[in-house]
Amino acid sequence: MARDPADAAHGAEMAGTRRTRPVVTVRPDNMLLEIKHLSKHFGGVMALHDVSLTVADGEIVGLVGDNGAGKSTLIKIISGVLRPDGGSIRLGGQEAALQSPKDAALLGIQTVYQDLALCDNLDVVANMFLGNEQVSGAGPFHLRRLSEVTMEHRAREALRSLKITTLASLRIPVGSLSGGQRQAIAIARAVTRAARLLLLDEPTAALGVAQAETVRRLIGELKSRGIAVVLISHNLEDVFATADRIEVLRLGRNAGNYPAAATTPQEVVAAMTGGRDMSWLR
Question: What does pTM read for this prediction?
Answer without folding.
Answer: 0.84
